[in-house]
Amino acid sequence: MYTTNASRGLPRHRSRHLTERYTRWALRCVIATLVIALLWLVLAFHLNGQWMFALLFLVLGASLGVVFTKRTLMSHRYIFPAIAGLGVFVIFPLLYTIGISFSNYSSSNLLSEERVRGQLMSQTYQQEGNAFDLTLYQEGELVRLYLENSEADTPQRFVSSPLNFDNHETRQIGIQAVDASPTQEPLGMRAIIQARDSLQELRLLTPNGAELRMAGLRQFAPMVDRYEAREDGTLYDRRDDRVLTPDPAIGFFVTDNGERITPGWPVNVGFTNYTKIFTDPDIRGPFMQIFVWTFVFAALTVVFTLAVGFVLASLLQWDQLKGKAIYRTLLILPYAVPAFISILIFKGMFNQHFGEVNMILDTLFGVRPEWFTDPWLARSMLLIVNTWLGYPYMLLLCMGLIQAIPQDLYEASAVDGGGPITNLFKITLPLIIKPLTPLLIAAFAFNFNNFVLIALLTGGNPDILGASTPAGTTDLLVSYTYRIAFQDAGQNFGLAAAIATLIFLLVAGMSLLNLRLSKVKV
C-alpha cells in the first residue's frame, strides 16, 4: 500500500513527477519567449542600422537558447544571468567606447553617409522674384486659398478649391488662375497661424506645372531642390553653383575650395584621437594638468581621510574615554547622509558672499577667500569636503582592524615602558597597514573617478585659459571627459571615448595591483 495525493487520488511520486514536468514546460515557454523577444530586438536594431546592438542581442539570444536547452550545460544556468548582465552592462559598453575612440564620432558626425546624403537632397530653396502673397477666405466650413503675385510685370492670381485643414498629410492641390480678387472679407493672421501645419504640407500646382510651397506665413513660392545627385556620387549645388564631393577620410562632403558641409558621418580615424591628446598643445596642456591633479586629488584624499579616521579610531579605543558609543555614533553620522546632500550643503557654506565659512573668516581674520574662482582655493575646498565625506569609512576600517590587535602586545609594551607614541608606530600601524593596503587602493580608485563631487561642488571651474576643449582647474579626468562629450559645442565623442579608454586602463591597472596585494591569483 502506498500514499496517494488527497485531492486527485494519485500516487505521491506520480504527482511530484507531474509537477516537475509542468515546471520544465513552463520554464521552456519562458525561455522561448525571451529568445523570441531577443530575436525581435536583433531584427529591429538591424533594420535601423545598429549592427553592434543587433550582434549583441543575437549573441545573447543564442547563448540563452544553448545554455537552457542542453543538459550538459545545466550547471551554467545559475550563473548565466550574472554573465549576461556583465556582458550587456560592462563588457559591451567598454568595447563600444573603445570602438568610438577610433572614430570621429561627434555632434557633427552622427548620421550615416546615406542619411547625410538624404538630408542634403531634401533641402530646397526659393526662386527669387516669384513669391505669391497668401490670403485665406472662409467658405462654409472649408477654406479657400488666394495667391497673388503683384510685383510681376503681369500680375498673376490663383485660387484653390475649398480645403479642409484638418488634414495634415502632404498633398498636391491644383490651383486655377482668376482675374479678380474675392469680394468677401479675408481671414486674419490668427487663422493662418492656426492652419500653418496644414499649409506647410500643401504642394500647389499652377496650370503651367510649377509647384508652390509655403515660404512664410504670408507667402507661397516655387521651391526648388537645392542639390542634384550625380552618377559619380557627387552632389551639384544649384543655388551656389558648386560641386560637393564625399571625402571618406574625414566624413564630410567638401567643396572645391575644401569647405566642409555639415552634417557629416562617422569614419575610422585610427589613433588620431589618442595622438591628439599628447600632440595637440591646446589639448595636451589641459589634459596633463588635469591628469596630475587627478592623481594628487585621489592620493591626498586617501591620506587625509586615513589620517583623520585613524586618529579618531585610536581615540575611541582609549580606555579612559567615557561615552564611546555616543561618540562613535556621532562620528559615523556623515557616512549615513547621502553624499549629494552633504556636497550641496558645503557648496552653500563655502559661498563667497553669503556662506558661513567666509562669514566666520571675515569676523575672525578679516578675509573672504574666493573659494570658487581661485584655482588653489577651489582645490583646497574639494579636499576639505571630500575628507569630511570619506573619513567615516576609514574610521570604520581602522576601528575594526585595531580591535583585532591582541591586547597582550600593548600590555607587553607597557611592561617595557612603551608609551602611546611607541605603541602607535611599533604595534598599531605595522599590524593594520598590510590588511588596509588593498582597501586604500580601492579608495584611491574610487576618488580617481569621483565625478559626483566635481559635478555638484565646482562643475570643474575655474576654467583653464587657452584650452580648446572645456577644461577646468578642478576637473578630474572623468569630469573632463564628460564635459568634452556633453558640454562642448562640438560634442567630440571620439576624443572623450579615447580619454575614457585611458581612464579604464589606469583603473584596471590599479585593480590588478589591488588583487596582487590581496594575494588573489588572477
UniProtKB/TrEMBL annotation:
<keyword id="KW-0812">Transmembrane</keyword>
<comment type="similarity">
    <text>Belongs to the binding-protein-dependent transport system permease family. MalFG subfamily.</text>
</comment>
<dbReference type="InterPro" id="IPR029345">
    <property type="entry name" value="MalF_P2"/>
</dbReference>
<keyword id="KW-0997">Cell inner membrane</keyword>
<comment type="subunit">
    <text>The complex is composed of two ATP-binding proteins (MalK), two transmembrane proteins (MalG and MalF) and a solute-binding protein (MalE).</text>
</comment>
<feature type="transmembrane region" description="Helical">
    <location>
        <begin position="78"/>
        <end position="102"/>
    </location>
</feature>
<protein>
    <recommendedName>
        <fullName>Maltose/maltodextrin transport system permease protein</fullName>
    </recommendedName>
</protein>
<keyword id="KW-1003">Cell membrane</keyword>
<feature type="transmembrane region" description="Helical">
    <location>
        <begin position="25"/>
        <end position="45"/>
    </location>
</feature>
<dbReference type="GO" id="GO:0042956">
    <property type="term" value="P:maltodextrin transmembrane transport"/>
</dbReference>
<dbReference type="InterPro" id="IPR035906">
    <property type="entry name" value="MetI-like_sf"/>
</dbReference>
<feature type="domain" description="ABC transmembrane type-1">
    <location>
        <begin position="291"/>
        <end position="514"/>
    </location>
</feature>
<feature type="transmembrane region" description="Helical">
    <location>
        <begin position="325"/>
        <end position="346"/>
    </location>
</feature>
<dbReference type="GO" id="GO:0015423">
    <property type="term" value="F:ABC-type maltose transporter activity"/>
</dbReference>
<dbReference type="Pfam" id="PF00528">
    <property type="entry name" value="BPD_transp_1"/>
</dbReference>
<keyword id="KW-0813">Transport</keyword>
<dbReference type="Pfam" id="PF14785">
    <property type="entry name" value="MalF_P2"/>
</dbReference>
<feature type="transmembrane region" description="Helical">
    <location>
        <begin position="381"/>
        <end position="402"/>
    </location>
</feature>
<keyword id="KW-0472">Membrane</keyword>
<comment type="function">
    <text>Part of the ABC transporter complex MalEFGK involved in maltose/maltodextrin import. Probably responsible for the translocation of the substrate across the membrane.</text>
</comment>
<feature type="transmembrane region" description="Helical">
    <location>
        <begin position="436"/>
        <end position="457"/>
    </location>
</feature>
<dbReference type="GO" id="GO:1990060">
    <property type="term" value="C:maltose transport complex"/>
</dbReference>
<dbReference type="InterPro" id="IPR035277">
    <property type="entry name" value="MalF_N"/>
</dbReference>
<keyword id="KW-0762">Sugar transport</keyword>
<keyword id="KW-1133">Transmembrane helix</keyword>
<feature type="transmembrane region" description="Helical">
    <location>
        <begin position="290"/>
        <end position="313"/>
    </location>
</feature>
<feature type="transmembrane region" description="Helical">
    <location>
        <begin position="493"/>
        <end position="515"/>
    </location>
</feature>
<dbReference type="InterPro" id="IPR000515">
    <property type="entry name" value="MetI-like"/>
</dbReference>
<dbReference type="InterPro" id="IPR047103">
    <property type="entry name" value="MalF_P2_sf"/>
</dbReference>
<feature type="transmembrane region" description="Helical">
    <location>
        <begin position="51"/>
        <end position="69"/>
    </location>
</feature>
